[in-house]
Amino acid sequence: MAPAHDPSLKTTPRTRAVRAVRAVRAPSRAWLMLPAALSLLAGLDAALMLSGVAAPVHGAALPGRHGVLMTLGFLGTLIALERAVALRAPWGYAAPGLLGAGGVALTIGLPAHVGAVLLADGSAALLAVYTLLYQRQHDESTAVEALSAVAATGAAVLWLRLSIAELLLWLVAFVVLTIAAERVELARLHLPARAGRLLLAAAVLVLATAVASLAWPDLGDRAAGAVLLVLTATLVVYDVARRTIRLPGLPRLSAAALLCGYVWLAVAAVVWLYAGTPTSQAQYDTAVHGVFLGFGMSMVIAHAPVILPAVIRRPMPYRRIQWAPLVVLQASLVIRIFGGNALGNEHLWTTGAVLGVIALLLLPVTVLASMLTARKAAR
Question: Taking a C-beta distance cutoff of 8 angstroms, is the pair 312, 26 a contact?
Fold first, then answer.
């Protein structure tokens, strides 16, 4: 133990000021997550309306905004916030701020073009964040993330004129490329030296299929299915999740979520490769929710215990209750896709859809529960 007269124990005006700034930054980051939470709630309310069951809020415009709210309003804001923290520049928070504002605008019923412009501006700001990060690091993973921001910007702009079904691959590119780049970055030590270049080439192909789908929808969708299937297989082979699934606690939870996500992405890719542009509601529903719910949300569950504490500077220790969102989510997808879409059972489809909403509501609940128990333990 240091002696009482140790100079290192003394506080100066400068150290007190630094501590005050640090104390303010964490809550300010947490406040930026509120628009994402609002977009999530609005998107889930719209999901209930689309499922034909009772919803807390009956906004006539919400069902048509469901996909944009969940992808750019919710996921986009969270991704931009994490990247702004990594950038460590105040202007970087414009990206999550604008994306969150776009989600709020769509939630409260403002005209769709108002939300679309805000989302486009936020995605462009995210691209600027990635550009500066690339100048610092010069790695292929960051370049791929920049391409994902290009896809997000394109999706927001196209939404001013096109339906979600017509620009779907742009949103797919945003989610898949962001997550793939992060997984390659984390598995860098286990990958061959050319892995980054191959990922960048795959990202260019994914974005090219999104562009092609605007002029030749069937060709673009089939090509996207092929590229996504190869990308998924490659990620599974090299992802450390295949080894960490054997470890107890949080590593096993994250690994299980990652591997489940890859399975659902492969299912969606097979639908596009086989069917091209989906010709039935069952095919469309399987492809869409295989990517955004099965892959995207499974990855959120996998990364939340690591990313959220870094963003809001609050510990989030592992608790077994954190398995609940993942288990319910996977059950909902099995019931919805195989029971509802494959077998044509409408009751099972509705049950799966409602369980999916419950799973996503459980996610913030388990996050808060883990953080509160950590605070109590610290006290």
Answer: yes
